[in-house]
Write a structure and sequence with these properties.
Largest sheet: 6 strands, mixed
Number of domains: 2
Distance between the termini: 47 Å
Order of helices and strands: EHEEEEHEHHHHHHEEHEEHEEH
Number of strands: 12
Helix content: 25-40%
Structural class: alpha/beta
Shape: globular
Length: 343
């Protein structure tokens, strides 16, 4: 990083909030909960409602947001998982925010604005910072765009993405943001949490670890990084990594980068040992049936009964309270039979 970049991000006095990821809200509900003139919802979809939205596109015709109007107030849902946004290659929510600000679709320092996110991965954090700060240097914008692309699409090594993902699920922006400021200015990173530092150091070699892990599992051989199984017939890839240096959120971008013959990536863990409720993550891989989305498949299989939630090509079981749980083996069988029927 260049030492010439001197810019400090600070979320103090910049209205923002982390919402409960397990509760999917609609635009009318958010208008009721927040009195701000402008509500910006980043990197997650809203529950459908009778309230209609209008698509917002940039000068290149790329989808940026769904716009809701209510009593002279506006809600912008900026989410790259939207059906229209997902058609744009290597486009994340961070890129949408960059374009929206450049085209003056919203003012990042609007005093009547609140920004809402529901998770703290690389794309959410970067888009949150950009949507709340003005006059961000072009070099920083480029760094953010590259980090979001690496985290969501290419799987390429990226220190900024590694840093943010080291804090994933901690929601600890108070300690993360000062480190981001140090990183973009080229200064030495000073960690106050040894576990976070160790995780960051492991992430530096993570892409190679994941590639090794995938190459072994695709042969249905034993990996030192965890368990796994590859269904050769339907190309379903089941993963249960044991090594904490393997972040499953990074698997899909690397699968795409390596152009692996994978239809669905399935990772899982027990959410609550007391209830034995399974939490299983699903991602559509490079070989997922064309013209079909994971969300459509979930509806056809009635996966909502198992607490399925998600959007377009990413989702999971146990995200919401369902009627019952489902084991990884049973789910794998359901997916196997479904994919056989759509070939």
């Amino acid at each position: 990083m260049s030492s010439e970049i001197k810019y400090k991000f600070d979320l103090s006095n910049r209205p923002h909030e982390f919402l409960d990821k397990s509760i999917l809200q609609s635009a009318p509900e958010l208008f009721k909960s927040y009195s701000h003139a402008l509500i910006i919802v980043l990197d997650f979809a809203l529950r459908s409602s009778e309230m209609k939205s209008q698509p917002v596109v940039d000068s290149q015709g790329r989808f940026l947001a769904s716009k809701y109007d209510f009593q002279n107030r506006v809600l912008l849902n900026i989410d790259h998982h939207n059906e229209y946004a997902s058609k744009t290659k290597d486009f994340s929510t961070t890129h949408q925010v960059i374009s929206a600000i450049q085209e003056k679709i919203f003012n990042p320092i609007d005093p009547e604005k609140v920004v809402l996110v529901n998770h703290d991965d690389t794309d959410s954090v970067l888009s949150l910072l950009l949507s709340t700060h003005r006059n961000v240097p072009s070099k920083v914008i480029d760094l953010f765009a590259e980090a979001a692309k690496a985290a969501d699409h290419t799987g390429e090594p990226n220190r900024l993405a590694n840093l943010i993902d080291s804090f994933y699920k901690t929601y600890d922006l108070d300690h993360l943001i000062p480190l981001i400021n140090l990183l973009i200015s080229g200064e030495k990173l000073i960690f106050t949490d040894e576990k976070i530092q160790q995780k960051f150091e492991k992430y530096e070699t993570q892409p190679e670890l994941i590639k090794d892990y995938l190459s072994v599992v695709l042969k249905n051989e034993q990996s030192q990084y965890g368990e796994g199984f590859y269904d050769v017939e339907t190309k379903i890839l089941r993963l249960s990594p044991k090594d904490k240096a393997i972040d499953t959120s990074r698997v899909l971008p690397i699968t795409i980068q390596m152009d692996l013959p994978v239809s669905i990536i399935m990772t899982y863990s027990i959410l609550d040992s007391a209830t034995n409720w399974w939490k299983i993550s699903l991602r559509a891989g490079p070989s997922f049936p064309k013209g079909l989305t994971l969300e459509e498949m979930a509806k056809q299989l009635n996966l909502e009964q198992f607490g399925y939630g998600g959007r377009r090509d990413a989702g999971g079981m146990g995200r919401y309270h369902g009627e019952k749980t489902i084991t990884p083996d049973r789910l794998s069988d359901l997916l196997h039979q479904f994919l056989l029927g759509v070939r």
